[in-house]
Model the fold of this input.
Amino acid sequence: MLIAAWTRGNLLVRTKEKNKERAGSQTRGKIVAAAQELFLARGYESVSIADILEKSRVNSGSLYYFFRAKEDLLLAVLDWYLDNLYPQVIDPALKTTSDPIEQVFAVLEGYRQMLTITECQMGCPIGNLALEMSEKSEAVRGKIAQNFANWRAAIRDMLVAAGNRLPAGTDCETLAMFILTVMEGGVMQARAHRSLAPFEQSIALLRDYVNRLVANPDATTPGTPLGSRPEGWWDELM
Amino acid sequence: MLIAAWTRGNLLVRTKEKNKERAGSQTRGKIVAAAQELFLARGYESVSIADILEKSRVNSGSLYYFFRAKEDLLLAVLDWYLDNLYPQVIDPALKTTSDPIEQVFAVLEGYRQMLTITECQMGCPIGNLALEMSEKSEAVRGKIAQNFANWRAAIRDMLVAAGNRLPAGTDCETLAMFILTVMEGGVMQARAHRSLAPFEQSIALLRDYVNRLVANPDATTPGTPLGSRPEGWWDELM
DNA sequence: GTCTATAGAAGGATAGAC
DNA sequence: GTCTATCCTTCTATAGAC
Done:
């Protein structure tokens, strides 16, 4: 469902567009949709403007009417992901179960399906761009960080809802960040090995960890500041 | 130390070169060294042949004498990483302590230093290329998988050495894969946020997990096949 | 807002002398 | 093995008519 919506288009965002263009014009949306699919499949640098024009069936002049440069188009795609996190990733997971911990794993299950459907060729579109683009543009890096921050916040809310089952003093934001870590690292290895196994095993061990937290809420282990967090690094969210 | 050696050059590999070129020629090595540094800093697509020629102070003709195409040069860089995993990443960690579990964390500490020195602009050179290149070339993807497999095997050996402290039946290869997952996911977020915190916290929670495994070696948690693993996906190594 | 045509730079790769 | 010169393609972006 995740993937289907991601690759099918951008119906949702079109109705939300804040621009002053007349509502009837679908050109901008078609361009963003094409760029989003191509960047997801092949990254940023190896997708050319010509590729985007061909896929969206739009002419060069129109593209540069809406976007000053290729990078602005990428920013628009990242905004699209920002707008679609809840409708396409979080809300479907919330609906599968009322157990907040199971909701977290339902989100991860969505990524597993994405890997399955694409035969491990597409994983997380943001993680993709994070490594390719972080050094090249501050604006892009900022929007990627914001995407991560929103994802983390959504997972954090689920963990907070499960808070009484976790060890007292657990920092849910940090644990959410760790879950994103495992998801991204698992996707990376799944793609490199063209196998679901690294992803599935990573999630299995993550679940073992969560199970151990729930089973032993009073245990503390030496030198592990589960409840502490250096302030300030996730400022992009606020 | 990790980083210093990575960015300084490739003294080691030059002496190992299997090619038939006369030993005195440093040209091939200079090209690989330049390419390795540039790919690490900026990825593959956004580094041009001209960039590599300028940095290595070599002429176009020489580069194409040694490498048929840009992709062959990338394969040579990936071979360089394969050759340098132990001398530059594993051996230094083995020397820091005799406790195998601490050796694992010493490896991760090396990556933390890399992030520190580069102000979170460079992380794992392989993870970098894994997401950018997995879909573009089977040859490249295979060598990236091999790099992951060797890293995993080295960590697995440490875990095997600590085996009696881990839950009976723990699959050390899977746990090693999970450690790579956490490392890569942590590096990704550190770069996206330009902050060490996501990496450090990811490692802190990983340590909490390992501590819980060691503290509760008899506990099993439902539905988590810590000791099982689908066979076959890491075949690249064998 | 959309179209065609094209500028102008940068890209990977090759030729052929030495 | 190394050099210079350059081919040809592809790329991002713009011009200007409609």
